[in-house]
Model the fold of this input.
Amino acid sequence: MRPAPSPPGASGSAPHSGHVSVTASAIASREELAEGRAVIGVGTGGSAAQTMGLTLRQTARTATLKSMATSLRRLLRGEPIRFESDSEGRLAWLGRARRIPIHAVGSGPRLLAAAGRVGDGATMYASVDPDILRAGVACVAAGAGESRRELADFDLAIRAPASVGRNRMVARDYARGRVASALRHPSPVPFRPEDAPGVERLRREYDAFQHATTLASWCSTGWWT
Amino acid sequence: MALAGAPDEVRETVRLVMTVPELARFILLPQVPDAGFGSREPILTLFAEGGHGPRRVGPSSVAAERHLSAGRVGATRRAATLYSRPPGY
Done:
């Protein structure tokens, strides 16, 4: 019962921290090293965008996900895209078209549906609770249906902070910062009423410059793990 | 929100996640403190041995436990590892 080999790739590249042409070039290079095994995850960005002065509300746009997926596909086929400067560019070194699956990453209903519309696969960064995951799967399925595809065609994944240790509390402490960062994003289902005030507080106080660290002040209560 | 805790606890969480049949992969973000503390390897080793694969306590998991127990909470690093659904789930 050994896990299958890990596909090489990035689990969530975003347009704010790396230009799509650079991302395309990087993943094409990886595909060259591990032909037929590379995947690329695309998302709308979180903490990196926040450190650049953007809010999650500004970045979490379905159009961004669509644009990323479309541009990556074109570049990986060797086709040109139009840059922000209005000039056109392509991966001149590519040689031949590369078929690299694009995993679109989302947390809330809108982005998960968009992931279903534009991705070859979808990655949910939502929870490990089966009920919440099922709600997320339904969002992806709805998006896939809009693009006349079946969920069975999808490589569906969850992205989860992981920390395993014999000392349960230490292991959980390690994960608090990452969980806190995940809670900034919308959920496929509304948070429970008793959790909502804490989530709101966390979102207000979260400091992207201390991204996912467990030393940050908002980790002191740690009620969310 | 996380696969976090003791191996038995994480194994149970994995089992529950795998009741959602559409899911094919976990992408793990192993959470470890910065230099001088733990590393990602013990977390992945314990996950594979205790949380995801067949249960086996060997030298690697003992080392992993020592690694984690010696650590204290610190800043985390980011990494992603993909696992496929193993046979039998």
